[in-house]
Structures are given as C-alpha cells and as structure tokens.
Amino acid sequence: MDTPVIELSGVIKSFGPVDVLKGVELKAFAGKVTALVGDNGAGKSTLIKGLSGVQPYDEGVVKFAGQEVTIHDPRQASALGIEVVYQDLALCENLDIVQNMFLGREEILTGTLNEADMELQATKALQSLSVRTVKSVRQKVSSLSGGQRQTVAIARSVLREAKLVILDEPTAALGVAQTEQVLNLVRRLADAGIAVIIISHNLSDVFKVCDDIAVLYLGRMVAHLKTAETTYSDVVGYITGTKTQEGSN
Amino acid sequence: MSAPLPPTAIGSGNEGTLKDQFDSYLSRLKNGEMGSLPAIAAILVLAGVFYALSPQFFLGPINFANMFVQAAELTMLSAALVFVILLAEIDLSAGVTAGVSMAVFIVLIKYQNWNWGLALVAAFIAGLAIGWVIGFIVAKIGVPSFVVTLAFFLGFQGMQLVLLGEGGVYRVEVPAIISIMNDNMPVWAGWAMLVVMALVMAGLSLWDRSRRSRFGLVSKPISLLLIKIVALLGIGGVAVNYMNQNRSQGPIPILGVPIVVPITIGVLFVGSFVLDRTKFGRHLYAVGGNPEAARRAGIKVGRIRIYAFMICAFMAVISGVFHSSRIGNVDGSAGHTIVLSGVAAAVVGGVSLFGGRGKLIHAAIGALVITMIDNGLGLLQMPAGINFLVEGGVLLLAATIDALARKRSGGSIARS
Fold first, then answer.
1. Which residue in the set B216, B282, B292 is minimally distant from A106, CB to CB?
2. For residue A3, what pLDDT band results from cuts at 50, 70 and 90?
3. Residue A28 dihedral angles phi and psi, to the nearest 5°
4. Would you say the ipTM is above 0.90?
5. Does CATH number 1.10.3470 belong to domain B35-183+258-407?
6. Which of A92, A158, A188 to probe by mutation at the B interface, max B CB count within 10 Å?
7. How many pairs of residues across A and B have Cβ atoms under 8 Å apart?
8. Do B267 and B318 contact (CB within 8 A), yes or no?
C-alpha cells in the first residue's frame, strides 16, 4: 500500500481535566474517501481542528506524505495543502463565486485584481469537477442554493491544489437531490487524486461514497473498516460502543 | 439570441447580445438588487416637482451650479462613511473629526504662522490619526463603533472649542481654499473634464476587455460600452453646457463648472477604483459580508477595519475643507449636524447598513437627493421644520423600498 497523505498516531488532546482524544490513529489515502464517524462528543471535531491548525494537539505524531510535520496554525495547514470545508461554509454572500473562490489569494496584475485570470481558473476548477448546477461564475453567492454553495466551497479547495480536503458534515443541511450532487462531487474530488475525509452522521451517505470508515468512540479510534467489507449494523455497533474490533485499542 | 451552450459550460454573465444583457439587468432588479435606481427616480421626481413649483429658480443656471456646490460637502462625507458602513460599522464622529482637523489647520496658520499647504497636510494627518485611534479601539479592543464614535462625537465638540476658544471664529484667508467652492473653471476646462471622464471610462473598459480576451473569455457587447459613453457625454454635456452659461446678475460674468466638481469626481473615482479593483477593496467587501469567512480566508480583518476608519476620517477632512471654503471660516460648531445627513444620503443612495453592499456613487446620488430636498424647499421658502420632515420621510421610504424589494425576492433582509 502506498504512503497515506495524512497519518496520525498517538494523538492526545485534553481540555483541562477532560481527555477528548486518548491516543488516536487515522490514515487517509490519496484518491480515497475516508469517513470519520462517531457519536456526539466522540472527538471528531477536535481531531479535525488539530489537523486544520485551529487547535493543535497536545501529543502525537502527524505525518504528511510520510514526513513528520507540526501544524500549529491554519496557515501551516493551508501551506501543506490541507483544506477544511466547514459546515457553516465560510462564504461571503455579497461576493460572487469567483471572488469567493479566490478570497485571500487574489491574482494581481500591475497592482490591480486580475479578474480575467481568476474567472478562467474558477471556471476550470468547477468544470474539472463536472459541476452542472452553476449557471454563471459571476453569480452572487446569496443567489445560490445550499448545494451550490457547498459546491463552491469544495471547488475552492481544488483551486488551492489541496492534497487533503476535510469536509465537516457536507450534507447536513441539504435536500435529497442536492445531497446526491454533493456526494458525486466528493467522489470526483477523490478521483482527481485528492485524499478526502468526511465527517458525517448520515450513514447512508457514508456507505454511498466512502472507501474507508474510521469510527471514533469516546476519544479512541475503535474501528478502521473497508466500506465494502462491513455492514450498516456493524458500524452502528462500533459507534454506540456495543461492538469492538479485534486488534484495535 | 445567444447560441445554445453545451451542458457543462459555465457562463460568466458576459455572454449574449445587448438584449440579453438588458434582460439580465431586469432580472437582477426583480431580485431586489436595485442599487441606486430608487434614488435616481427620486432625483427625477424631485426635479419635476420643484421645477413645477418654482420654474424660474430651481433649474435656473444660478441654482443649478449652486446645487452641485451644496451637494459636494455632503457627497464627500457620505462617501467617506461608505467605507465604514460597508463593514457594517458606523462613524458618528466623521463630522467633528473634520471640524477638529480644520481647527488644527486654522490654529497652525494663525498662531504658528505655518504655510497653509503644510497646515493642510497637518490637518489631514490629524484626521488619519483620529481614524487610526477609532479603528484601533473598534478592531483591536472590540468596543462597538457606535459607542466609540459617539464618545468621539461628544468629546471632539469640546476639542473644537478648546482649540478655537469659546465662540472662536476664524476667517480662512487662503485664496486657494476659498476658491474651491466659490470659483469656477474656464469654459474649456469644463469640456476637457468631460472628455477626460469619457476617455478614462473607455480606457478602463477596453483594458478589461483586452485582459479578458487574452484569457480567451467573452466580454460584454461593445455596444454596451458605447451606450454608456454616449450617455455620459449626453448627460454630462447638458450639465457642463448649462454651467458654462453666464449666471451673473451683475456686470461681471460668472460662468463655468465650479472647481469643487472635478475635485469631487476625482476623489470618488480614486475611491471607487480602490474598492472595485484592488485587493484591499475586495477584502473590505468580504469583511463586510462575512467577517468570519474573511478571517478563515487569511484576511487580516482587524487591519482592514483600521484602514477603513482611517480612509473615512481622511475623506471627512476633505469634506471639512469644502465646508470651510464655502462659509469662508472655521468655527467651533463645524461638522456637528452633517454626519446624520451623510448616513441618510448613503442609505437613500442604496448602501446597506448591514454591510458588504454599496458603492461610492450610491452615496453621491443619495447626497444629491438630500441636497435637492434642502435646496428646493429652501427656494419655496418652506420653514426648516418641513425640510427635516421631508428628508426623514424620504429616508424611511428609501429603506422601506429596499426592504420590500429584498423580501419579495425571498432574500434575507437583515443578515447578521
């Protein structure tokens, strides 16, 4: 098996007396979608915040493409090629799609914004994901549906040439058709060679799109499963703690 | 008819013929993105009503030029406020900041015998410093801008009195300053100004088009640019021609475009250029639209806020210079009342107090509406009370139209 894009081992994180992560392992491979599932309070968000640099881990080894790295702030994560698509999206509704996709890293030519270059790149990024739902890249985000916004947020990570994209509950607020679109998009993201981690509570989504499933239970990684080799009820068992995997701690 | 696009093609809103562009403009209007259209309608209605009520005065050559001079002060202050309103902040102290800076200006000339040019530079530096302090308190300490600038509004009224002395009124004896509001350009310069405006408009647009075509992107039909330039030359030509008529009632002719007009247009142009075409401008809109998204995108939100307050204060000082030029002196009460009219002008013109939406030109159009009400009711010799009532009514009407338009389109009225 090739080197995982990201490999965590022995990750520990406490808030005062509360141990949230008690030695967690996680691997995500290029071209694969890895689901991170677990009940509320299992430590999913804390694990992700450490990867994105928002809340660094207390202890543990983080390897990025085989190299040991430390991620202490969001800029370091971004420089490595780790992009997080947050549940609340972080788009500016008053700006258009191109402006949002390039926010904070605008292309400049002779001191002014190079709108043409940005427009072309944004269009290409959307096309590379076979996005069909967006009419114009110059639409304001306020005029987009939830699914379209999610699309823009995901396409932004493609534009930034991310190696690892972490999606926090990407379908939580979406209807059936839009969920389908976003899941297809996630699949294409992985097919483009990016490692994808999805946090989700929706197991039917997980089974539809993910290659691997990692289950967190009370701060421990209780199972690493291949989607093809497991069942719905097994995963529920691991999440609720009624089942444990041999060889896992 | 535009050619049918292949299913995966993603447009940019630049495709299609003139008619397609017009249709998409109409659909944006229907979606509640009306910009300053209601304000432009208000200008036409007000012009019609006041012309009907006092035909010999309102659109007469004296008053026509006079109205632009009157509007300049408010336009500049309102445009200054746009920079902070875009961040969903407010600067209630913009007027008194201008007052204090002009007090610094006059005191340096009168008591320190400074050269007026240096004193003017000092006044602008004073304005920038005040803007920095306000911005720092808002952005870094986290006090709401309403409270910070209210405190400065109260405190600086005192500062003006301290600098100028109780009841102190000083004449501005600087011809260059006085002539801004009181003198006119030669006839040829008015026409030259208009030609320069058309050339700049065409030049920027052609520059954009050449950039787009270099990246293989479609541009809007060139006929649209031609229509805009013809409109500019047409409307501007009528206005310049009118201001170039002799409006003197005595033997010495008075004619030409007032000097303040090109200064105001120049400042608005530079400000708009910064907002529309620079990284800073883009980041300003982003922070106004969603500060958290801006922060996550790596934008230094605090720094943007501080700069916005500094620009606001700087442009407020320009408005203060206009004010001193018009009334010919600096006194302790300058700038106390104008700030609320400035906010009103911005809102009437289509700038959203919720942040992230609006342009400098909106403030200028709104300022023209407010000034026309002032001016027209004044000519009709209405009492001041009526004046305030009408202005208040227009502000409420403008805000209501905006809210209804957004509600009908299903958009959110108030985004927090």
1. B282
2. confident
3. -135, 130
4. no
5. yes
6. A92
7. 109
8. yes
pLDDT of residue B120: 96
Comparing CB atoms, the residue among B217, B297, B415 nearest residue A116 is B217
| Domain boundaries of chain A, sorted by first residue | 6-91+163-240
Give pLDDT, residue A142: 87
Looking at residue B416, what is its pLDDT?
32
A135 to B11: CB separation less than 8 angstroms, yes or no: yes
pLDDT, tens only, A34-55:
999 988 888 888 898 888 888 8
Q: Residue A151: what pLDDT?
A: 87
Angle separating helix axes B222-243 and B61-85, nearest 10 degrees: 130
Give the mean pLDDT of A74-85.
86
**Cβ contacts of A104 on chain B, cutoff 8 Å:** 283, 294, 297-299
pLDDT of residue B90: 95
Residue A121 Cα distances to A102, A157, A165, B9, angstroms: 9, 12, 19, 14
Domain A6-91+163-240 has CATH 3.40.50.300: yes
Q: Is A105 on the interface with B (CB under 8 A)?
A: yes
DSSP sequence for B114-158: --HHHHHHHHHHHHHHHHHHHHHIIIII---HHHHHHHHHHHHHH
CB neighbour class for B374 (10 Å; exposed up to 12, middle 13-18, buried from 19): buried
Residue spans of the domains in chain B: they are 35-183+258-407, 185-255
Q: What's the pLDDT at B157?
A: 93
Dist CA B316 CA B130 (whole Å): 11
Which residue among A90, A113, A120 places its CB closest to the CB of B279? A113
CB of A216 within 8 Å of any CB in chain B?
no
State CA A99 to chain mean position distance: 22
The pLDDT value given to residue A169? 86
Q: Which residues of B touch A157 (CB under 8 A)?
A: none
B411 lies within 8 A of chain A by CB: yes
Average pLDDT value for chain A: 87
Query: What pLDDT does residue B238 have?
Result: 92
The pLDDT value recorded for residue A248 is 46
The amino acid present at B415, given as its one-letter code, is: R
CA atoms of B336 and A46, how far apart (whole Å)? 52
Q: Which chain B residues touch A78 with a CB distance below 8 Å? A: 298
What ranges in B215-290 are assigned the alpha helix state H? Answer: 222-243, 260-277, 279-289
Helices assigned H by DSSP within A9-71? 44-52
- Residue ranges in chain B whose pLDDT is less than 70: 1-9, 408-416
What residues contact residue A204 under an 8 Å CB cut-off, 6+ apart?
A: none
CB of B292 within 8 Å of a chain A CB? The answer is: yes
- DSSP at B11: B
